[in-house]
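Checked the freezer inventory, then went back to the computational side. Two predictions to log before the end of the day. The first one is the construct we discussed on Monday; recording sequence and tokens without edits.
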Amino acid sequence: MSSYIVNSRSDNTAKSYFYAFKRWETFIKKHGFQALPAQPVHIALYITYLLDTGATCNTINSAIYSIKWVHEMSNFADPTKNSYLHSLLESAKRVATVKKHKKDPVSLDMLLQLCSMFSDSQDLLVVRDLAMILLSFAGFLRFDEISSLLCKNVKVKSDYLILYIEKSKTDQYRNGNEVLISKGDTIACPYEMFLKYVNLSGVNLESNFFLFRPIFRSKSICKLIYKNKKLSYTTARESIISRLKLVSKDLKLGLHSMRSGGATAASNSDVNIRVWKRHGRWKSDSSKDGYVVDSVEKRLQVTKHLGL
């Protein structure tokens, strides 16, 4: 029963709450009091301590919700239903919120220019990076989604690809999601680049191996490692961002720039909103809107339609 109760939250959420509660437990025990069940005034003093030591709003949120979560699982009254804590949480949103520095989105022109630079390349490392970039852009994929793809998760049709996303941040109940990627007409076609990667790497699309794995070089040989190991975030970021910087030196880019760039390009092209939202696997409008950078033309439409 305990394991089922813990599984009411996603693995990452449960892990985050566990460590947040351990920090609260360490703090309160140093002062000679118990962490469970907790007194509201003690939690309020703990939140005050976090604010005084420069904690972010996310840290304070985690502290409060972790305490609430553990008390509910232990069948104790929720001590976080307190006016002091409510006021402190609102205060944290004002004084402890760190300004977000979002990465710039990748544009279609950048991808066309980048693919033109390496149009004749048969280097497996280059083709792997380009395939990851184009699939992430076209499928609005997060790094965890593209790096976790297994060979068997991709089905090649006559004019499109089907990517089966087994695990996604927004798929809390693990139902899985299918992402369809159409064959394109330009040098930056994700369909053609993927097939080029498959041919060069020799991967078996029926296997349980990770599709994008680290690569080793030995003299003139360049191959995927034989061990079934996914590409690490650090390695991917270093390799992919260095390629994107060849065509965008002044932009602040990250691995999320492809997802943001694809979402922005589709949004500014008047794609059906329902299908666009499904393609990006967003649960709410507020989530999807955070990925889009509206073009100047789109923003000017507001005043153009005022009839002035």
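The second is the one RB wanted added to the comparison set:
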Amino acid sequence: MTTSSNILVCGANGFIGSRIAAAVQKAGHQVTCGSATRLRTDLPHLPIDYSRDTDAATWLPRLAGFDTVINAVGVLRDSARRPMQAVHTDTPAALFQACAQAGVRRIVQISALGIGRNDKDNPTQYARTKRAAEAVLQALPAGGPSWIALRPSVVLGQGGDATKLFHTLAALPVLAMPAPALAAKLQPVYVEDLARAVAVLADPASPSRGVVEFGGARAMTLAELIATLRSARRGGAPKPARVLRLPAWVGVLSSRAGDFVPGVPWCTDTRVMLELDNVASNAPLRGWLGTEPRDLRDFADTL
């Protein structure tokens, strides 16, 4: 039986973090929501600013009494308001170092599958900054917090940026995408499954540690994913999308144009990530859940 812990969820207002906070609370833990603004009045709130809180000394007094810290803060695109370097690397580094000093027993970091080991694997700023945060965890002193960095495949659920992008593509009469992106495979993870897994892993006694890559129920191409979403919209059997395979250079130019349009999900980092295979065994997720992960076909109508 899991022992109740005092847990700080950073990014508790976000797409993934809000689900994690709910799942951790449901599992019987005491939850504090770390975020810039307070949305839940039923749980304690800790004001944090991931764009500015880059000093361990800022975090140290905040962490008194917490057994576990979960970091679910992330941005898809770099911006002046939320610089990716600060949000993905500098602030998490300060947080993790403060955890070691404050006696926090467990850290759960939400990372991403496909960021690779170096720039050769994935040269995007997104990947570099996420890898740098993991490197800080790996450098924590022996005897410090146990930690796990989760690298799920693309996480889907209502309100997610990836879900919005794929829904936009599914609504188009023709799926016009660069050929490399259409050929790459994804293995969608249902956000509720991820949240339930984190609730298990938040226990300081959890034996799961290190960097763990995993996928959802099954791998599929982008075209298959879009066909499944279209089917859910129509309430019928999956139908192959009408596909227009664009030359790679068209994707490069269009994504570079997207780099200059704030708020648009199509940008260079998105294109590069979509052109990489994003698949891994679902055994870790299945083990944490104690059951099979949800297949996209089973939750597409909820997106």
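For RB: The mean pLDDT is 91. The radius of gyration is 19 Å. Let me know if you want it refolded.
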